[in-house]
């Protein structure tokens, strides 16, 4: 026989049927008696609330009627002139309202509403601001105007504070002599008093009917005005629920309703035309008396169990308890990892018994788990060995990679240091070579000598360009290349670059043209130096590979968002073969080896230009026909600004000597550079004193008066940065006007200029320094000093960030 059938046959007659019978009889009795008690309680409570509410409502109507008949209210309404009303009659009226508010603590707001609904006066004991000053379109005001009696009361939710309130209003009519004529109506207004319904909330909020019953008030639209403080009710009843509750209140009876997530017994009544009172009790509370019945049933059941326990225990223990206990013990052993447990299968003759089938299946499962455990141990051991081997291999590889990375970092750092050192060491003699060759070109030479010197000067500049390209490429590779973002004049940069390259083009008999659009913005944000470097690279290439014809620089401004500049440099040179076009922007790449041998160059110019354009958010490309010329294009995104940062005009870079004689201190340890600067100063009105290290420079500044200090960065005993800082400290301590200090350095990195400015210098010149560049700098210094003397302003602007200074003393 099946196990479920055996349990049903045994337990149903002995336990289930008696419990069901006794429970039904007791529950029916308890529910009926409890329901009757609750109905009586609900009727008594409603009657008490209705009586109290009627008394308070009558008192409120009487008080409001008395307020409205006050002479102060009538006098206030009778005055048509707003200024007189507010200045003369409003203060005593507000005092009257204050006295009423003091006498009746529930009355917290008094208002005079004019016939159009606007507020004529207000007194409130609440600090909450009024959200609606114009009542003309409010439903309450429309109902007030339509009231026949002139005295109107209504319960609402006050929009100012979201609390239930009672509005009591009385029409005030005044007949004045001015309106006594025919066709003129008397003056009228409305006295509106807002009252806290404490006489209702004090009864309803804490009220409990039984354990979970409550009472609540609603208005005629089904909005909850006052409810229990210990239970949340919906702010507004839905249409279906409200239709049932409204009908219940009008009939005055009881009704069972499914409402707010439960089943309730409700009774309703009307307090006024717009006020409904309801009491509700949870239906579940009416059946709570079943607990007593459950106790009685439990006692009877316990007695039955005690009488039949020996018989039932023996039968159930043999049939179910012992096999289940054995199965439970076997499960614990399996949980501890013992898969050798064996179950003694009783009742072998009853093979269809579910318990026997369960024990047999459990035994098979234990055997399968034992086999799986052995296989898992074997697989886990093999997997752990493989993981261990692979981990050791990864550790070895990681160590090798880390070592390789350290070596690469060291090599990159060493390369950067080497390039910086080599740049300095090469630029120092290059300063002398280029300077001396420039000076020689100014002397009387034979044609052959001039050709030799010109060749030497061009070669020196070419070598300097190679050094600059290598340094830029090194900064790109190390990731230390940055782009400035300052205002500058784009037109000035293109004009200046074109002027610089005009001489080289004319030497080859080429024409250099410019085509700049008229709507070019006055100033944009960007890096003027890098834009100039890109243009110089493209123009140098065009001049190098063009033997006749012309070169044209063109600039187009696209005003559509995003605003973009399109540069193009076109030449009539040798062009580029199609197979080389796609590789032309790679570093150390030229069209072919013959080109490199014939025209020279490092192959870095276009690669650097491409990286610069991409760093500034643009792109660069070339269109070329072999034998007919090439056109290089590049775009840059534009951000237009009001005006550019003041720049040094290119026309200022001349060899014109200033009329003012400057007294100059040169701090330079290289004898060759000292000689070069002496030659630069010949035929000029300037006087120059030379020292060989920073210590002498500081001492000389303290002893003599100078207009300008040319300070080399690397000097023995004390470097230029330290010397500059010492001079600035001495100037602050003694109150001296700061000298103009320009640093001289063979380091071309932009960081050196930033370090110079941070140390207190006014400008930075990079060696090799051409004569015209130096003389132009001296001319700007002299002009700044002249301007300051003429205006007698010690902080007059100069070409540098800090103000120019005259010689101390």
How would you describe what is shown here?
52% of the residues lie in helices and 18% in strands. By secondary structure, it is an alpha+beta fold. The C terminus is likely disordered. The strands form five sheets. Strands 2-1-5-4-3 form a five-stranded antiparallel sheet, sandwiched between helices. Strands 7-6-10-9-8 form a five-stranded antiparallel sheet. A hairpin with a 6-residue loop joins strand 3 and strand 4. It contains 20 helices and 22 strands.
> Strand count, sense and closure of the main sheet?
5 strands, antiparallel
Oligomer: single chain
User: Measured on Cα atoms, how large is the radius of gyration?
Assistant: 52 Å
Report the principal-axis shape: flat
N-end to C-end Cα span:
126 Å
Chain-averaged pLDDT: 77
Task: Identify the notable features of this structure and list them briefly.
alpha+beta; 5-stranded antiparallel beta sheet; 18% strand; 809 residues
Short note summarizing the structure:
Helices cover 52% and strands 18% of the residues. With 809 residues, the chain is α+β, with helices and mostly antiparallel strands.
Please describe the topology of this protein.
Blueprint (H helix, E strand, L loop, with lengths): L2 H66 L2 H8 L3 H22 L3 E7 L5 E6 L14 H7 L5 E7 L6 E11 L12 E9 L2 H7 L9 E6 L4 E3 L12 H13 L2 E6 L2 E11 L2 E8 H4 L3 H46 L18 H88 L5 H32 L7 E3 L1 H18 L3 E6 L7 E3 L1 H17 L5 E9 L5 E8 L6 H4 L11 H7 L5 H11 L4 E6 L3 E9 L25 E5 L3 H11 L5 E5 L2 H10 L4 E5 L7 H15 L5 E6 L4 H10 L3 E4 L4 H21 L18
Helix pairs in contact: 1-8, 2-3, 8-9, 9-10, 9-16, 10-15, 11-12, 12-15, 17-18
């Amino acid at each position: 026989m099946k196990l479920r059938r055996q349990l049903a046959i045994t337990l149903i007659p002995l336990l289930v049927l008696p419990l069901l019978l006794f429970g039904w009889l007791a529950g029916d009795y308890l529910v009926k008696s409890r329901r009757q008690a609750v109905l009586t309680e609900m009727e008594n409570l409603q009657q008490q609330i209705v009586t109290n509410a009627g008394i308070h409502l009558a008192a409120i109507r009487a008080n409001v009627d008395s307020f409205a008949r006050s002479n102060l209210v009538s006098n206030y309404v009778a005055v048509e002139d707003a200024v007189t009303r507010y200045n003369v009659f409003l203060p005593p009226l507000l005092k009257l309202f204050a006295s009423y508010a003091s006498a009746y603590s529930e009355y917290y707001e008094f208002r005079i509403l004019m016939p159009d609904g606007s507020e004529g006066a207000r007194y409130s004991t609440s600090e909450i601001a009024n959200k609606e000053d114009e009542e003309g379109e409010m439903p309450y005001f429309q109902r007030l105007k339509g009231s026949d009696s002139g005295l109107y009361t209504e319960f609402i939710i006050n929009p100012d504070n979201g609390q239930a309130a009672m509005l009591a209003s009385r029409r005030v009519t005044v007949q004045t002599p001015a309106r006594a004529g025919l066709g003129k109506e008397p003056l009228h207004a409305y006295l509106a008093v807002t009252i806290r319904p404490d006489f209702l909330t004090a009864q309803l909020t804490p009220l409990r009917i039984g354990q979970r019953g409550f009472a609540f008030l609603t208005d005629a639209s089904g909005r909850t005005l006052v409810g229990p403080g210990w239970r949340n009710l919906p702010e507004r009843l839905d249409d279906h629920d409200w239709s049932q509750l409204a009908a219940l209140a009008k009939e005055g009876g009881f009704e069972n309703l499914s409402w707010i997530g439960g089943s309730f017994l409700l009774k309703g009544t009307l307090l006024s035309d717009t006020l409904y009172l309801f009491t509700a009790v949870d239906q579940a509370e009416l059946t709570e008396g079943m607990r007593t019945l459950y106790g009685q049933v439990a006692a009877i059941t316990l007695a039955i169990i005690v009488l039949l326990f020996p018989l039932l225990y023996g039968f159930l223990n043999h049939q179910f308890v012992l096999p289940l206990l054995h199965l439970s013990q076997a499960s614990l052993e399996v949980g501890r990892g013992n898969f050798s447990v064996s179950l003694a299968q009783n009742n072998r003759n009853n093979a269809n018994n579910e318990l026997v089938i369960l024990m047999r299946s459990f035994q098979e499962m234990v055997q399968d788990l034992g086999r799986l455990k052995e296989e898992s141990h074997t697989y886990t051991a093999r997997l752990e060995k493989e993981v261990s081997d692979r981990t050791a291999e990864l550790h070895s590889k990681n160590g090798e990679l880390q070592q390789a990375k350290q070596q690469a970092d060291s090599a990159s750092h060493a390369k950067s240091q080497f390039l910086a050192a080599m740049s300095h060491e090469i630029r120092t003699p290059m300063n002398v070579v280029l300077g001396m060759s420039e000076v020689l070109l100014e002397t009387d030479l034979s044609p052959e000598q001039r050709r030799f010197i010109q060749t030497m000067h061009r070669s020196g500049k070419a070598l300097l360009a190679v050094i600059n390209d290598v340094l830029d490429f090194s900064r790109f590779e190390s990731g230390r290349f940055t782009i400035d973002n300052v205002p500058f004049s784009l037109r000035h940069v293109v004009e200046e670059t074109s002027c610089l390259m005009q001489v080289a083009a004319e030497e080859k008999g080429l024409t250099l043209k410019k085509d700049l659009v008229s709507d070019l913005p006055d100033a944009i944000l960007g890096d003027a130096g890098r834009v100039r470097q890109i243009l110089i690279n493209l123009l140098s290439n065009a001049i190098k590979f063009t033997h006749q014809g012309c070169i044209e620089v063109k600039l187009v401004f696209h005003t559509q968002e995003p605003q973009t500049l399109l540069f193009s440099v076109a030449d009539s040179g040798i062009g580029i073969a199609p197979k080389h076009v796609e590789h032309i922007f790679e570093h150390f790449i030229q069209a072919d080896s013959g080109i490199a041998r014939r025209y020279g160059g490092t192959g870095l110019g276009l690669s650097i230009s491409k990286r610069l354009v991409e760093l500034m958010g643009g792109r660069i490309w070339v269109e070329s026909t072999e034998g007919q010329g090439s056109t290089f294009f590049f775009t840059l995104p534009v951000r237009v600004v009001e005006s550019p940062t003041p720049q040094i005009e290119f026309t200022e870079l001349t060899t014109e000597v200033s009329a003012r004689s400057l007294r100059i201190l040169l701090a330079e340890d290289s004898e060759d550079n000292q000689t070069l600067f002496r030659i630069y100063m010949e035929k000029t009105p300037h006087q120059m004193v030379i020292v060989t290290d920073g210590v002498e420079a500081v001492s000389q500044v303290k002893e003599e008066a100078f207009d300008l200090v040319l300070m080399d960065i690397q000097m023995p005993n004390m470097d230029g940065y330290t010397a500059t800082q010492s001079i600035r400290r001495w100037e602050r301590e003694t109150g001296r006007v700061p000298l103009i200090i320009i640093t001289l350095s063979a380091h071309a990195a932009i960081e050196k200029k930033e370090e110079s400015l941070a140390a207190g210098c006014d400008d930075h010149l990079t060696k090799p320094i051409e004569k015209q560049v130096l003389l132009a700098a001296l001319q700007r210094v002299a002009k700044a000093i002249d301007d300051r003397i003429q205006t007698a302003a010690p902080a007059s602007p100069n070409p540098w960030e800090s103000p120019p200074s005259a010689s101390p003393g």
